[in-house]
Amino acid sequence: MPFRFRYRRSIYLLGLLTVVSVIVYNKKLHAKESWSNKSTTTNAIEKHTAPNAVILLTQRRSGSSIVGELFNQYVNVSYFYEPLFPFDDTCKQSLQNQTQKTIQHIASCELTHLPKLYNEAFNVTNRDDKYSKCKEYGVCFAGYTRSKYSAYLTRDAQICHTTEVHQQCPAPIDLDRLSSHCRSSIMVAMKVIYLCRLEWITPLLSSKQSNVKIVHLVRDPRAIVNSRIPQRDLKSEVNKARFGVIRFYAHQICDQLSSNVDYADMAVGSLVPRESYLRIRHEDFALEPIQVSEKIYKFLSLPFREDMRKWVLDATTSNTQASELKTGDQGTKRNSKEIVSAWREKLSFEEVVVIQEICKDSLNKLGYRVFNTEKELQNVQELHFEPMV
């Protein structure tokens, strides 16, 4: 074979080999980039489609136990039950900084800071830690009845275990381990009933480094007052004292309620991103639990799974009637529609008038009807609010 022909063939083969090599390399590079992009997209879904934290902000006896279970029952959500218990609802200005720090550390899964903050709060409020056991466990209500506890401690973190009626945890809980688990969960949620002023945590809502959302649960203050006071007695002197208790609670509840509603109406859309705040009325949840649950999950960018849908239906259509619920019952299974108007059959018209005089502003802003006659009050077939769902 002539040399010139062999030389040309060698050049041709070398060129062909180069082209093939480039094609193979480009395919590998493309595959690698595709995997990288897919991985990034997956991480984005896992990390950013749900907020880092959601705060269920409400007041005592506002239906927060059952709404909080929307988070507690959700697998791989770290749900903190009343983490501000040591701070009480006395609204001590001296605890504002510690309140904000506590919520911030929970939202960012830095749980090792909690014992120090809890000790400082208890030293100011002198609350009894017998049931919450915040100091014993390092987190509040870790080892409590199964109607008041954080399910993820057993279900997901596997730090505790449950008996028929209680959740049992080691004391103190390993907060380093719990923080690590918390960071791996899809969302951090907390039910907060001892935050006096929404404005105290504005920096957490407006910070670019934080992705915290608020679900603000409100309820007719007349129903809240009824839920907190003792039942009427046949003795007139007992009922006179009852009026004093009603006035006290009406002022306490409505001062805080009006303050937070006014602040939210002013701040949301300016100081606080509009997509970070959602207001829910307890009564709307009671009437249409599925629709309101869907609204909450959509707000949080969480799928409303079928198991949660079944749980909501079961929890809100219990055979337990409102008249059978004991005073102080804070269970999460009840006939919600019965609960909506139950207070109207338990408070006298005179008592309702007292509450309405104190809470007029809150009632008007939240869309609750004011009763002018006893006949209107007792006509429970007619709702005292316009359903929003």
SSE topology sketch:
Blueprint: H1 3-48, E1 53-57, H2 64-72, E2 77-81, H3 96-107, H4 114-125, H5 134-137, H6 152-155, E3 161-162, E4 167-168, H7 175-184, E5 187-192, H8 202-206, E6 212-218, H9 221-228, H10 236-267, E7 277-281, H11 282-287, H12 289-299, H13 306-316, H14 336-342, H15 349-365, H16 374-378
Parallel strand pairs: 1-5, 1-6, 2-5, 6-7
Antiparallel strand pairs: 3-4
Helix pairs in contact: 3-4, 9-10, 10-15
Task: Sum up the structure in keywords.
389 residues; alpha/beta; five-stranded parallel sheet; two-stranded antiparallel ribbon; 16 helices; disordered N terminus
Could you characterize what this model shows?
- The chain is an alpha/beta fold.
- The chain is 51% helix and 8% strand.
- It has 16 helices and 7 strands.
- The chain has helices spanning 3-48, 64-72, 96-107, 114-125, 134-137, 152-155, 175-184, 202-206, 221-228, 236-267, 282-287, 289-299, 306-316, 336-342, 349-365, 374-378; strands at residues 53-57, 77-81, 161-162, 167-168, 187-192, 212-218, 277-281.
- The strands form 2 sheets. Strands 2-5-1-6-7 form a 5-stranded parallel β-sheet. Strands 3-4 form a two-stranded antiparallel sheet.
- The protein is globular, with a radius of gyration of 28 Å.
- 35% of the residues are buried.
